[in-house]
Amino acid sequence: MTKQVAILAVNPVNGAGLFQYLEAFFENGISCKVFAVANTTTIRSNSGITLQADDIVAHLKGHANNYDALVFACGDAVPVFKDHAGETFNLDMLSVIKEFAEKHKIMAGHCAAGLIFEIAGITEGKKIALHPLAKPAIQKAIATDEAAVIDDNFYTAQCEHTIPVLLPQLLKALQ
């Protein structure tokens, strides 16, 4: 049975990171659906390219049982989150992240994914890789300088350039 992956794409999303996941999943027969962390399915990349997500994060709430993994495709996640933390789409994102973690689904992502997972309250004692600028904000996880880290069901990469270090193990877990 093919594995199902839900991808959270912030607005704006890091296109280089998002497309690495999409391509790897497609090439390995892993089904995925992209959920925009926004009020609309139309988002953009950091470079301004307009993208159409499959759905919005609000519609992912309550559906963790339909998926085997949650991938956080980073972008300008932290500044956008900081400026819009109380927006419904960000609250929905945190709710979805908690829901997937409570069901012990694979939690994956790059760059600030570890920080967003921390904000969601799911990183206690987990070893994570994340962007060096996000490292000082980590309180409950164990922030590393490694290119990629796997700790139980957490699969994290430091940035979009280190996703290729993470992908073989993530794909293996999803096969």
What are its keywords?
175 residues, alpha/beta, seven-stranded mixed sheet, two-stranded antiparallel ribbon, 5 helices, 31% helix, 26% strand, globular
How does this structure look, described?
The chain is of the alpha/beta class. The protein is built from 5 helices and 11 strands. It has helices at residues 15-27, 77-84, 88-102, 113-119, 163-174, and strands at 4-10, 31-37, 42-44, 50-52, 55-56, 69-73, 106-110, 127-129, 142-144, 148-151, 154-157. The strands form 3 sheets. It has a 7-stranded mixed beta sheet, with helices on both faces. A two-stranded antiparallel ribbon has the order 3-4. The protein has a two-stranded parallel sheet with strand order 8-9. It is globular.
Count of discrete alpha- or pi-helical segments spanning 4 or more residues: 5
Spans of 5+ residues with little confidence (pLDDT < 50)?
A: none
Distance linking N and C termini: 9 Å
Q: Which structural class best describes the helix and strand composition?
A: alpha/beta
> Judging from the principal axes of the Cα atoms, what is the shape?
globular
Fraction of residues in helix:
25-40%
Mean pLDDT over the residues: 95
The proportion of strand residues reads 25-35%
H/E series: EHEEEEEHHEHEEEEH
Sequence of strands across the biggest β-sheet: 5-2-1-6-7-11-10
The main pleated sheet reads as: 7 strands, mixed
The value of Rg in angstroms is 14 Å
* Overall strand count: 11
